[in-house]
Design goal:
Layout (H helix, E strand, L loop, with lengths): L1 H16 L3 H24 L3 H5 L3 H13 L6
Length: 74
């Protein structure tokens, strides 16, 4: 089993080492991910718990009540 894992690891390591265009593509992918998760989070996902609750205990109670809340059927 260990030999198979090593073969797979070295296969990918050699492939990434010999890439030229791939490095540019990976850089573009990483920049896009940084923009998506870093920048957009600031504008579209406000810190609801920090804005609406004053202490960690209140935040924890709110999260616990939301997780354990049973859905009512209508």
């Amino acid at each position: 089993m260990k030999q198979h894992v090593e073969k797979i690891f070295f296969f990918y390591m050699d492939g990434f080492r010999n890439m030229k265009l791939g490095r540019t593509l990976w850089a573009i992918i990483l920049i896009k991910l940084l923009i998506m998760f870093g920048v957009l989070k600031l504008f579209f996902f406000p810190d609801y718990l920090h804005e609406n609750f004053n202490s960690d205990t209140e935040r924890a109670d709110h999260v616990f009540s939301q997780i354990t809340q049973t859905e009512t059927k209508q």
